[in-house]
Amino acid sequence: MSSETVTGGTDGLAKDTGKSAGRIGVCMLIGIALGYVLTVVWGRTLPPGDNKVLLSFWGVLMGLGAAVSPLEQEISRQSAHAALNGRKVGRPALIVFVTSVVAITAVASFTLLPPVTDRVYGGRFSFAVIVLAGGLSFVFQFAARGLLIGYNQVRSYSWLLLAEASVRVIVVGALVVAGLTQLFWFAVAAATGSFAWLLFARGAARLVDHRLDRDEPAKPQVANMLMLLMGAGLTASVITGYPAMVSLLAPAGNDARLGVLFLTLFVARTPLMLLSPVQAIAVPTVVRLSATEDGKHRLRRLLAAGSVGALALAALGALVGYLIGPWAVGLVYGADKNPEAWWVAGLVWSSVLIGAIQLLAAVLVARAKAGKVLVTWAAVVISTALVLLLLPGDTVFRAVVGLSLGPAIGLVVVISFVLSSTGVEGNDEAS
After folding, report:
1. pTM score, two decimals?
2. What is the torsion angle, in degrees rounded to the nearest 10, for the CA atoms of residue 255, residue 261, residue 266 and residue 272?
3. Under 8 Å CB-to-CB from 315, ≥6 apart: which residues?
4. pLDDT(409) > 90
5. Where are the strands (E) in 298-416, listed by range?
6. Long-range contacts of range 43-47, CB-CB < 8 Å, 24 or more positions apart?
7. What angle (nearest 5°) sits at the alpha carbon of residue 329, between those of residues 328 and 332?
8. Greatest Cα-to-Cα distance within the chain, rounded to the nearest angstrom
9. How many helices (H) and strands (E) does the chain have?
10. What b/e sequence results for 360-382 when a residue is b if at least 16 CB atoms lie within 10 Å of its CB, and e otherwise?
11. Are 107 and 68 a contacting pair, CB within 8 Å?
12. Between 218-237 and 341-366, two packed helices, what is the crossing angle to 10 degrees?
């Protein structure tokens, strides 16, 4: 293959990737906006104590969704390889799917325990049941998403993203109109979005080879998937699940202040959400770039520049958050919600760094380095948890400092993995 052909191929891939990211990005931004509509309705409808409970529930539910997101990445990786070879995905995809079902069932069942229910849901057992149902449905949803994006069916993938967010808002709107603004009904509405995959099940099923007579060993697939799920579970605990993590490890804080902190966290997560379109296509893009030497060189340049840029962007984001963050939170959730400026600065800093870690971890996923992904997120969560448990000061202080320090440590770890020769150019361990 000539260098001109290779260059033209990677240039074409870059253009296609840009178009896909743009389309997915528009749908994700709409979905994010709809998600903020939910938190605004909750923040303005419920008293601070109830809002804290609902946001903790929301954190666990969406944390389970985030925890199973490696299923999307792994199936998209398998699908991208299969598409390049002109075939459908088969038994390996089923193996990682079943592994995810078992793992999510086990984790979600943990929240059924009375001590956890009391701390996280304020003693509401029904919330734990809703989380279990929603978590299982997320497994199907992310499997469908992985198939669609892996086979470059960007249009269907984008519509699925919109459907998930829209269903929640439609149901919440109907509840408000009907006057059903109690915690239970809001929790049910929050879980409905995880069932949006039902609208796309037939199209996704066509991409799967249902003949299961191929002789791939299950053990490596199961082990790899479990490591990815564990890493994603750790990831979720410092993103969507952070309110629940704070409630479990540092439960003695003032409910009103913590309610404001958790609302502030949603605003501060905006930079992280803006990276979602790139994260969605990161794994299949890395697989395609790695197919040529020119693509590998381009990937290394992007990784080096992105790592440096992440720190600069995080510092800028922290400054902007400090200057206008309290005003933005008050504008969105009401003038009575008054976070301190340093809260917003720390949370925005952490959001940008977490986004950078997720992008770099996606490279490791594409290279089938699940163990290194797990180590990365373990570093983030352990350091954050130690701050929550051991740092002197009130709960809010520990929560902000922990979430600022943990991702900084994790970024150093993942950069060292990704920029190593094995992280970028190593052979895939599984296809």
Report:
1. 0.68
2. -140
3. 349
4. yes
5. none
6. 43/263, 43/332, 43/333, 43/334, 43/337, 44/333, 44/334, 45/176, 45/181, 46/181, 46/183, 46/186
7. 85
8. 67
9. 19, 0
10. bbbbbbbbbbbbbbbbbbebbbe
11. no
12. 170
Taking 3-state DSSP, the helix, strand and coil percentages for the chain, each rounded to the nearest 5, stand at 85, 0, 15
**What residues form DSSP beta bridges with 208?**
89
The pLDDT score that the predictor gives to residue 180 is: 77
What is d(CA 43, CA 25) in angstroms, rounded to the nearest whole number? 26
Q: What angle do CA 213, 208, 166 make, to 5 degrees?
A: 150
pLDDT at 174 over 60: yes
Beta bridge partners of 89: 208
The amino acid present at 297, given as its one-letter code, is H
Of the chain, the percentage scoring pLDDT greater than 70 comes to: 85
Name the 3-class secondary structure at 89.
strand
- Token couple for 40: 């605004």
CA dist 117 to 66, 188, 215, 263, 294, Å? 20, 16, 43, 21, 53
Stated length of the chain? 431
CB atoms within 10 A of CB 277: 21
* Between 214 and 326, residue with greater pLDDT: 326
The whole-angstrom separation of Cα 367 and Cα 372 is 10
Distances (CA, A) of 321 to 126, 270, 330, 341, 350: 37, 11, 13, 7, 11
Alpha-carbon 227 to chain mean position: 16
Q: How far is residue 15's CA from residue 27's CA, in Å, rounded to a whole number?
A: 19
Would you give the DSSP letter of residue 212? -
Q: Structure tokens of 150?
A: 């892996």
Q: What does DSSP assign to residue 110?
A: H
Structure token pair of residue 420: 């190593």
Find, among 344, 337, 396, the residue nearest to 44 by Cα: 337
Give the CA distances from residue 174 to residues 142, 180, 186, 198, 406, in Å, rounded to whole numbers and listed in that order: 27, 9, 11, 21, 40
Name the token pair of 225.
């998937």
Checking if the pLDDT of 32 tops 50, the result is yes
Helix (H, G, I), strand (E, B) or coil at 369: coil
Question: Which structure tokens are listed for 334?
Answer: 């009401």
CA dist 22 → 9, 149, 160 (Å): 20, 14, 16
Dist. CA 301–CA 341, nearest whole Å:
36
Distance CA(397)–CA(72), nearest Å, equals 35
- Report the distance separating Cα 383 and Cα 407, nearest Å: 9
